[in-house]
Amino acid sequence: MISLKTITISAALLAVNSASFAFDTLPATPKVPADNPMSAAKIELGKQLFFDPRLSVDGTISCNSCHNVMAGGTDNRDFSVGVKGQKGGRSAPTVWNAAFLSAQFWDGRAATLEDQAKGPILAGVEMGMPSEQAAVDRIKSIPGYVQSFKAVFGGNDPVTYDNIAKAIATYERTLITINSPFDRYNRGDKSAMSASAVMGMKKVKSLGCTSCHNGVNFAGPDLPIGQGFYQKFPTFPGSEYDKKYKLTEDTGRYEVTKDSADKHMWRVPTWRNVALTAPYFHNGSVKTLDEAVRVMAKTQLNKEVSDADVKDIVAFLNSLTGTFPTQTMPRLPDFADATMTD
Amino acid sequence: MISLKTITISAALLAVNSASFAFDTLPATPKVPADNPMSAAKIELGKQLFFDPRLSVDGTISCNSCHNVMAGGTDNRDFSVGVKGQKGGRSAPTVWNAAFLSAQFWDGRAATLEDQAKGPILAGVEMGMPSEQAAVDRIKSIPGYVQSFKAVFGGNDPVTYDNIAKAIATYERTLITINSPFDRYNRGDKSAMSASAVMGMKKVKSLGCTSCHNGVNFAGPDLPIGQGFYQKFPTFPGSEYDKKYKLTEDTGRYEVTKDSADKHMWRVPTWRNVALTAPYFHNGSVKTLDEAVRVMAKTQLNKEVSDADVKDIVAFLNSLTGTFPTQTMPRLPDFADATMTD
Q: For a designed S-S bond to B114, which of A56, A198, B169, B174 qualifies (C-beta 3.0 to 4.6 A apart)?
């Protein structure tokens, strides 16, 4: 009895004392697939490809155009602009810390960063390459790339669409923002977060936000790659927000699976650097983080939050803005007599 | 008499011996205007602005979109693509070594890099900002920029359109590609250029190309800033090329001055890194450097050049590809609750 009581009390004390330690610090490195090991040369090649607009049909759009690593990893638009001024149908998710997600795209239709990288290059409204072969041919027409692919991947014919994706994914696995104020606080530096942010951290737990937004990326538990962590949005339909922000027009993962159980299911997005990635949600319909918090509380938890709650929660979310590693600009391999045409 | 003869002979010998030394090595630093001194903080601010798509109306186009410093300083297109997929009417000139030009734009309508920087931001088919004030307001809405402008320029209201241009121009004055094979050869390293390139160097002199393409940037003599070095193109009209490459549709500097003497006058463009900046001429109508050499010989010198001449001259032009300095990527200042809209 005494023993049990002690344990119970200890556990309760622990729960109180460690309330601020219940979240995970972001690791400095992600899991790396066995069939795509990282190397300095592969990272550099991937960085070149990530920044190279020649991967788009008319030479105007690079991966970085919509996933701007010099900023929060997005383009701060509702819908991204691709070749010929065309717009996509969903808001670009951040590339920062995407290496920690177990599924990619808003609807989880790609399991890995490698699979994800293959999508936008061929999407007509994004980079607009007519085929995998067209992308491969473009890269093969640049001698410096051929040389780098040989050095990195070996073999007789290393410039393949798979290897293009592997190099890009490898670079993306370096895009990690450790040492956010939250992470420093979580490691013991109590001065790293404001009192309001600490309050916000407690509130996201007590409100229930963290039943989904947990794990190192605040995007759900550490699932095997390919097994996405999805939630229905809105979980509580019928609020004023559904119409105001067109929350139900896009059916989410259902578009991929055509399984009615997947209607309005979405991969839970990261909270890391969320203060830099307005506008919010899959359709970028909500312009401020304050309003995004209100919408989430109502549609996912059926709760109203006070202005004070919103202020504290937004302060906490701001504490998840990490330290962006210093990067050198890639030099894009020379392309003699190149003309990009429409 | 003896004295005079000696001098004459010496001069002749000098001319022969120094035939390969008649061109200028690229200096490591350009002239800096007295009213815009350089500093590390101003360079960094200018780099941020240069790479920041938020200087365009919809957040999609940065200076770097068309003047890609990770490549040869252009977009390798005939006409650049601006906001909403719109196209400009002339091919983007390289930003590399533009600091050594005495006038900017193809038609010299801007005297300085500062003046030049103000153009594309407001051009409807480029970055599309509706007014200087709109650009200033955008930058003022980003707290990190306000802080940097205060640190760099001082004063109560340092975020001005003039200062935006000053910062960008300051960054551009660092975009210099010293140590090309030609420059190394010119400083005495005879192994730096191939035999063909050395032949090409002699041929551009003997053909007369260098009567215009001279000076440190192979873009004309060292004139006072604002005094552009212009030539008529085509100087010898009537060749097949006029029609084939639409050489006379655009009247060049005449569009600026409305002086009939300026019809088809163009600022002589640099040869440095020209191998990286296809397609060629103000309208990007010529796709290869080989053909550009043929067109120039015919239209400017009324000469036919052999395939061997073209090969050597192109080898020489390739020897003008410089060493691109390693640069860190700028971090764009945070922009909380930012949405870029159309």
A: B169
Structure tokens that stand for B218 in this block: 């192979």
* CB-based contact A53:A45 (threshold 8 Å): no
Choosing among A44, A60, A145, which should be mutated to test the B contact, i.e. which has the most B CBs within 10 A? A60
Please state, in angstroms and as integers, the Cα–Cα distance from residue B334 to each residue in B54, B98, B139, B256, following that order.
11, 30, 11, 39
Q: Which residues pair with A104 in a beta bridge?
A: A110
Mean pLDDT for the stretch of residues A103-129? 98
Most confident segment among A12-16, A34-38, A333-337? A34-38
Residues of B in contact with A86 (CB under 8 A): 85
Residue type, A275: A
Inter-chain contact A336–B276, Cβ cutoff 8 Å? yes
Residues 6 or more apart whose CB falls under 8 angstroms from that of A72 comprise: A94, A96, A273, A275, A276, A277, B334
The distance of Cα A88 from the centroid of its chain, to the nearest Å, equals 17
Instruction: Please give the ipTM for the structure prediction.
Output: 0.93
Cβ neighbours, 10 Å, residue B199: 18
Per DSSP, B89 falls in state: S
Window 271-290 of B, Cβ < 8 Å to A? 275-276, 278-279, 284, 287-290
For chain A, the residue count is: 342
- Please choose, from the candidates A149, A146, A155, A119, the residue with its C-alpha nearest in 3D space to the C-alpha of residue A46: A149
Q: Which of B69, B76, B318 sits opposite A338 (nearest CB)?
A: B76
CB B170 within 8 A of CB B42: yes
Q: What integer pLDDT is reported at residue A22 of this predicted model?
A: 65
3-state secondary structure of B340: strand
| Residue type (1 letter), A142 | I
Q: Does the distance separating the beta carbons of B328 and A327 come in below 8 Å?
A: yes
Distance of CA A289 to the CA centre of its chain: 17
Instruction: In whole angstroms, give the CA distance from residue B176 to residue B275.
Output: 16
Chain B: give the shortest CA distance to residue A100, in Å.
22
pTM: 0.94
- CA A77 to centroid of chain Cα atoms: 15
Which parts of chain B register pLDDT below 70?
A: 1-22
The shortest C-alpha distance from A12 to chain B (Å) reads 38
Question: Which residues have C-beta within 8 Å of that of residue B294, sequence separation ≥ 6?
Answer: B305, B310
Q: What is the predicted pLDDT for the residue at A15?
A: 42
- In the prediction, which pLDDT does A17 show? 40
What span, in angstroms and rounded, lies between the C-alpha atoms of B298 and B207? 11
Residue A203 scores a pLDDT above 50: yes
Rounded to a whole number of angstroms, the distance from the CA of A139 to the nearest CA of chain B is 15
Give catalytic residue positions of A: 126
Tell me: the pLDDT tens digits for A294-312? 999 999 999 999 999 999 9
**What do you get for the CA distance between the two ends of chain B, in Å?**
78
Residues of B with catalytic annotation?
126
Chain A partners within 8 Å of B72 (Cβ) = 334
Tell which phi-psi region holds residue B93, choosing left (phi > 0), alpha (psi between -120 and 50) or beta.
beta
pLDDT (0 to 100) of residue B22: 65
User: First CA to last CA across chain A, in angstroms?
Assistant: 79
A34 touches chain B (CB under 8 A): no
Res A141 pLDDT > 80: yes
